[in-house]
Amino acid sequence: MNLQRSFAISLLLFGSMFILTGCAPKPASEEGGDDAMIVSGVDDSEPAAVETMEASTPKSQPEKEILPFPHPGKMSEADIEKILSEKPPKEATMINLRFVSIALLLFQVIYDRYPTEEEGLAILLNPPMTPDGEKRDPIARPILIEDGWGNPIQYRHATWDNDLPGFEVWSWGPDGDESEDDIRPDFMDEIVKTAAMIEAGALDQLDSATSESSSDQ
Question: What is the pTM of this model?
Answer without folding.
Answer: 0.64
